[in-house]
Amino acid sequence: MGLCAYGLFHYKHLPKTIDAAPALSSAFVVADAPAVAPLPLHETPGRPQTLSECMGPDNLIDETVATCRFGRGQETFQNSSAQGMVSASYMSHYKAQQQRPQPRLAAAQFVESAVVWQWDRKRTYHAEWIVTDAQIDGTSVCRNWRRGSIEYRECRKGAKVYFKEQCKRLAESATRQRYCSAASGFNPLG
Questions:
Q1: Fewer CB under 10 Å: which end of the chain, C or N?
Q2: Is 177 a member of any domain?
Q3: Are 72 and 43 in contact (CB under 8 A)?
């Protein structure tokens, strides 16, 4: 903030126009130095024009309006060759990797739910779990209940019974295999 105030105060007192033909002192003239050409008058920095002064009757903002408003910017080179900080072998390896299809990071997974009976069949619970690659994730069973709560423990015990029942009831399929795997490997207390 202080630097901005200093710049504003310091540069406020400088002359606003630039002399097109600078007076050269004879003490500073060097015989072999090339003469510096003054800037053309249309490129001298002057008062920036407002957008309404630069806009045409079509009300389109294009390159001519930007040049009028802000002056001439740096020219861009479209056909310049890339000259970076990486080697050609690295760049070819990078481009080859970009063209290869990237492997899928996430496995196919979805949320499955069921209404399960409490282990003693006195109450029902709505249980949710995540199925990843046709296997039930044991840590996610009853994820819709607060971990550590009585409902969570009872829901998990009921889910274990539900998995055993589904394993017995369903015909041979991937779904049956999923439930049989969960019935044998799922620990409701862990």
A1: N
A2: yes
A3: yes
Cβ-based neighbours of 189, under 8 Å, separated by 6 or more: 153, 156
C-alpha distances in Å from residue 157, one per residue of 124, 148, 167, 178? 11, 13, 16, 17
Residue 180 lies in a domain: yes
pTM of the model: 0.44
**How, if at all, do strands 135-136 and 124-132 pair?**
antiparallel
In a domain, 24, yes or no: no
Name the domain count of the chain. 1
Domain that holds residue 175: 109-185
Cα distance between residue 156 and residue 138, in whole Å = 9
Can you give the pLDDT of all 190 residues of the chain as single tens digits?
555 555 555 555 555 555 444 444 444 444 454 454 444 444 445 677 888 888 888 888 888 888 888 877 666 556 556 566 788 888 888 888 777 665 554 568 899 999 999 877 889 999 999 998 889 998 999 999 999 999 999 999 999 999 999 999 988 888 889 999 888 888 888 6
Listed residue (18, 7, 74) closest to 45, CA to CA? 18
- The answer to whether residue 102 sits within a structural domain is no
